[in-house]
Design brief:
By secondary structure, the protein is α+β, with helices and mostly antiparallel strands. The protein has one domain: endopeptidase fold (from Nostoc punctiforme). It is 18% helix and 28% strand. It is built from three helices and six strands; from the N terminus they run H-H-E-E-E-E-E-E-H. It has a six-stranded antiparallel β-sheet. Strand 3 and strand 4 form a beta hairpin. It is globular. The N and C termini lie close together (12 Å).
Length: 137
């Protein structure tokens, strides 16, 4: 999957606001209406999408230096269900330690600048990102 396609899908929900819910699914797309459902939708995983407990299995760990558009910063894995976990899509660095991110929260979908989340938020790359499938580009 191309990075531009991931960000375009994230923008789709931004342009068509969705409510936030940890129980309900979007009636149009079938994805859960929480942060991990949003990232699952952007990564084009099968609906209803994964939870913060599951996404690390779909990803490879990377370093902050490797973060690129469409990668994720995630507080995930066992014990991070419900409000205990969170995931957002990295867009690009914003300078001075900030970053542009897409995320879906109780305030809806956002594309905004925020500080680098704490060290418990680990960077991941979706296994199906194009350069992992074809390292020659």
């Amino acid at each position: 999957m191309a990075r531009a396609a991931i960000l375009a899908r994230a923008q789709w929900w931004l342009d068509r606001p969705r409510p936030y819910s940890q129980q309900d699914c979007d009636p149009v797309s079938g994805y859960r209406l929480d942060c991990s459902g949003y990232v699952s939708m952007a990564w084009q995983l099968a609906p209803p999408g994964l939870t913060t407990v599951e996404p690390p299995d779909e990803c490879v760990p990377i370093s902050d230096e490797e973060l690129a558009a469409g990668d994720a910063l995630m507080l995930g894995g066992p014990g991070t269900g419900g409000d205990a976990g969170h995931v957002l899509l990295f867009d690009r660095w914003a300078g001075a330690g900030g970053l542009w991110a897409y995320e879906h929260t109780g305030g809806g979908s956002k594309h905004h600048v925020l500080g680098r989340p704490g060290p418990e938020f680990l960077p991941y790359r979706f296994r199906a990102v194009a350069e992992l499938l074809d390292p020659k580009g």
